[in-house]
């Protein structure tokens, strides 16, 4: 066991059981998976991406490149989870990943031997030939060898949700700077949100040993947290990572609500996606310790100096029974010495500098730690670390150790500052990139802004927190908190020259210093190319540790400075965000709302099959017992309608109410035909175009009174047409006095069609409505009541091409109307039908629908060109006169029937002359819709074909290579049923 | 992004539908060169890097068409006006 006998901010009274690779271990409440593994002496936790090298735990935070594990099992399995950020819970089960057959013995580690072939750009250079080998051989092998964890196979049983929050000041990070920022802002009364990805506030203060205001740092944290928690204007969001900055002060944040539990509590989501709108923000995201590049620097047991301190001080864990520090800065010394004082046996400090502050060497001396100045670690050995080779003064020696703490300096965690495209600036003195221009409203405090010492962190936090609240309209003053000023003393140092073995720049992507050299040699010298060629800085850690050394090595090779070499741009998200959290509740059936029609409950009772149509759930067909398939049902429904009477709920059609003295003039401008001349009490079919001359939508519009029209649109285009009409009124012609209202959901509309429909209707209307052909002729509109007092509008029209009526009632009476019509129609065998039979009848009638109004067709293409009025202007008129739209050879709507009546024709088939070679040049158009027509007693179709109206009787091929069909068809009148429209007028 | 709707106040951009350039004006359909002017009106758009005016529809709000002044480089919002009160 490597747990120190005392210390740590863990609760030793609360032991927790967990397993890793099937083996049981114990940890404590307050542990992370990483600290608990180290406490159990588990130092090998994974295999690397490409070479399958043994990997241990490098960091203690979200920047972790190595310790990626699969968490949980079954459908909750979650790959690529950073063990350093997983809060330990009882029963946690984790597996190492990317190893086969076992973590300890991995056959793929021979990839290390193949590394000459797997270097920078290997995807582009190797496995090139023969091409056929790529899919069948190379790719499967590479996919097996490379790659990270496995996604769960089952559906995630947990839920995710979205939430919104608003504040005056958002403080990102709950460490030293974040706490003083939040407190300074909060005391002014500003609404403050402080978010931290950790489960405890405090950041570095949970690990450091420096006093604040003369008291231990942890008491400072407790005091500030208590005050923040007591203020009603403050919200503390722990376990919450702010991952992205967006326009107008929007911040994306992911709250891990239940990730620290085996299973979420009832009605609790696993994660919650927050959109936080903040007037001002203070970024206090701290800094990372970055690695040094030297031979074998990826061996398990090598970790950052700050991580060593965190494990020792915060978690009470010695990650090994002895430790060596290799560094170039004072902060690494205080980290290692703090760890030593907490109980880690720190045997040796190796520093590349030849001079170090006497206070530090004295502290080392007091702990009995040997100090080697002007030294370098050149190699490491052991499957997990057993020893390091140190070079100093021209000689080398081997030092036994289980832990090598390294630090090449402090890298500000400035990810969020570049989300608006601002590239960080290099500061030579600090040997670090600092924020350039953060997004509007954001200020950067503490280590994230290059203010590394504790005193500066507390001070900048307080100042910027107060400034943020003041900018948001409050009167704030910075809170005071005193601590020691400590310099970093850094001497820039990136890689050990002449190191032995692989020297890694990017641990996660297996990028070595040699890969950077290769990229340079081959001309991939810009940082963006370097990243993409070598994969440096990609994947879950996004180069949080690795970027700096890679850039420095490239800078050295090109002879440019690091500042001139620059860094790649950080983009959201800061840490990976699960797609489940982005989707929230919008998945499966809840992907979008279910919008049932007014008659839904009744249709369900009747055993209807339903289909999603546009945003609606509509009845598709109503099977009867004994019917063998949908086609048999649909044929029955069509026959019954044409022979007697059928009924369908058409409430889904868009309905728009237009009122005002200019309503008629307005309709004249949006439809190609006239509506100002429409008589009151009449309906008319209209076609509207887009300004480019393409048909936008069609439908009937009725005039209820001189200044009152009701428009119907297709189901799919209801919202689009409404928006278009508002555009016309507000943007194009604001001088017109017309008011619009969408009434789609306010009115239920039921269509009855067929020769007996008048007799059915007569039974539900109230006096004085007269349904006779004289009083209510074709395209007539009646208003009054039905069913003893329910307000109604009755339109005599039919999409099916029969005598028919659409009866509108307020939506709450829709179901009642359906039942009343069914009762009234019983003597006539009234037959409910769904969208399938409707589609059949519209094709039989040659009515265009969505597959013809497809965004490519003009009114002329659809055979509707003659409707266009020549007496007025209308939207789309000018461009519908474009020469291309008037070409003789443009495909035009026609009907099609198979020459062999037993053959089935299908939508999508392309037309060409019989005997013509099936190539694009011979293409004459395509079939837009095809159905089996019970009336014609064969399959029939509609389609667009060159000069379609002139070629009735001609035979062409309907060629369908996708389904392997090639059928001879005859071009004909698209109106297969009642072409003269006599049935409509009876 | 948040849009200052003149009618509803500052609202999230998700409530709006974007259309595009608000600086184009529908040409005179009766002019002899209408085919050319309409082609330009429908198809030709400037793509300025900087200050721009574009049309947004407050679909999940008051249903107003709004002309928004926006810097295309950084989405800085200059102001918003009801389209019916703007002469392009």
Automatic annotation (TrEMBL), chain A:
InterPro entries: 2Fe-2S-bd_N (IPR042204), FAD/NAD-bd_sf (IPR036188), FAD/NAD-binding_dom (IPR023753), GcvT/YgfZ/DmdA (IPR028896), GcvT/YgfZ_C (IPR029043), GcvT_C (IPR013977), GCVT_N (IPR006222), Sarcosine_oxidase_asu (IPR006277)
Keyword annotations of the record: Oxidoreductase
Residue ranges occupied by any SoxA A3 domain in the UniProt entry: 501-584
Gene Ontology biological-process entries: tetrahydrofolate metabolic process
Residues covered by the GCVT N-terminal domain: 600-872
Taxonomy, superkingdom: Bacteria
Gene3D superfamilies: 2Fe-2S iron-sulphur cluster binding domain, sarcosine oxidase, alpha subunit, N-terminal domain, FAD/NAD(P)-binding domain, Probable tRNA modification gtpase trme, domain 1
Domain Aminomethyltransferase C-terminal: from-to ranges: 895-978
Molecular function GO labels: sarcosine oxidase activity
Domain FAD/NAD(P)-binding: 168-416
Pfam families hit by this protein: Fer2_4 (PF13510), GCV_T (PF01571), GCV_T_C (PF08669), Pyr_redox_2 (PF07992), SO_alpha_A3 (PF17806)
NCBIfam families per record: soxA
Family note: Belongs to the GcvT family.
Protein name: Sarcosine oxidase subunit alpha
TrEMBL record, chain B:
Matches recorded under InterPro entries: SoxD (IPR006279), SoxD_sf (IPR038561)
GO BP: any one term: tetrahydrofolate metabolic process
Gene3D superfamilies, alphabetized: Folate-binding superfamily (3.30.2270.10)
A GO term, aspect molecular function: sarcosine oxidase activity
Pfam families on file: SoxD
Protein name listed in UniProt: Sarcosine oxidase subunit delta
Species of the source: Azorhizobium oxalatiphilum
